[in-house]
């Protein structure tokens, strides 16, 4: 009888976002938003979110009916189906990698076959397919995540987090594909998808990659309790494109977030700030914004999280039309 290799660090622990204790769904939305993905240059590898999409499909189809996910041919086929939609030219179709390395996430545990618990625990890298099936009976999800995935609405919300965060440019193609293959899926675009949990995930990642520094003025203040002066601002509003990728965001202090939302300032595709021509430099507050003109946008050290050029062009266009 296979037994789960459980560790205390993988037990569900509630999280605080703002001053509100999150629900299990919100907690796992945040976990899905901030997966430990491989990064090569400015590209995030798609393997882990694709694996989760495949798992959710098999749960939806009742192929997976208990909390044990084997590395089956059906899982590999489902993975390949999504992978072919979202892959970049240098991505390899290797579903064994996310199945194995997902163990770095708090919600995924390998269940060893009888007598192989210690071997599985000490494996330094992903084994081959035959060896995986010999040593690992399957993956077990956190029980609260498993319960979330039994509910149609919660499953749809988690699926939407993955698409909005990792594959916003493929959103329509993925949604249409999912709707065609899973006729009972919750496929409307309800307000619940834009949940506090996911917003917390967007804010957490954007603020972290900008190291709590405003992309406009450079101010950085972080209190001992973790509070910070910057917001995570969407460059294109989430309501416009359902794009929750960090590259559609930047960290801005309250003043510059407010100013950008009102088309008083905007970042351009060449990473310079422009200002609204209606501003008057005789007014102290407006002069501060005018002085920003031509200055470089402060960007994250990690190129994978630099603001998207198309999003910057959209924001610049909004200012020109104002």
UniProtKB/TrEMBL annotation:
Q: Which Pfam families does the protein's record reference?
A: HNH_2
Q: What are the UniProt keywords, alphabetically? A: Endonuclease, Hydrolase, Nuclease
Q: Which GO terms describe its molecular function?
A: endonuclease activity
The residues covered by the HNH nuclease domain are 214-266
Q: Indicate what this protein is called per its UniProt record.
A: HNH endonuclease
């Amino acid at each position: 009888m296979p037994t789960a290799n459980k560790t205390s660090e993988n037990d569900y622990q509630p999280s605080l976002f703002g001053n509100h204790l999150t629900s299990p769904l919100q907690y796992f939305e945040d976990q899905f938003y901030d997966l430990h993905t491989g990064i090569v240059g400015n590209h995030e590898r798609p393997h882990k979110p694709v694996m989760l999409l495949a798992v959710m499909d098999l749960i939806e189809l009742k192929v997976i009916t208990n909390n044990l996910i084997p590395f089956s041919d059906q899982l590999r086929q489902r993975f390949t189906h999504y992978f072919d939609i979202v892959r970049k030219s240098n991505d390899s179709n290797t579903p064994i990698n996310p199945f194995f390395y997902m163990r770095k996430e708090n919600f995924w545990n390998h269940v060893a076959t009888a007598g192989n618990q210690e071997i599985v625990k000490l494996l330094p890298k992903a084994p081959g397919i035959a060896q995986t099936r010999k040593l690992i009976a399957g993956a077990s999800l956190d029980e609260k995540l498993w319960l979330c995935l039994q509910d149609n609405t919660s499953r749809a919300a988690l699926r939407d987090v993955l698409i909005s965060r990792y594959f916003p440019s493929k959103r329509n193609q993925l949604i249409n594909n999912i709707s065609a293959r899973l006729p009972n899926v919750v496929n409307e675009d309800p307000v619940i998808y834009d949940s506090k949990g996911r917003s917390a995930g967007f804010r957490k990642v954007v603020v972290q990659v900008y190291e709590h520094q405003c992309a406009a003025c450079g101010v950085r203040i972080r209190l001992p309790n973790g509070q910070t002066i910057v917001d995570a601002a969407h460059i294109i509003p989430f309501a416009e494109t359902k794009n929750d990728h960090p590259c559609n965001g930047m960290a801005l202090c309250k003043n510059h977030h407010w100013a950008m939302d009102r088309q008083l300032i905007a970042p351009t595709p060449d990473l310079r700030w422009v200002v609204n021509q209606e501003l008057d430099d005789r007014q102290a507050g407006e002069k501060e914004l005018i002085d920003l003109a031509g200055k470089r946008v402060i960007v994250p050290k990690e190129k994978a999280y630099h603001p998207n050029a198309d999003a910057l062009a959209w924001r610049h266009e909004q200012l020109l039309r104002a």
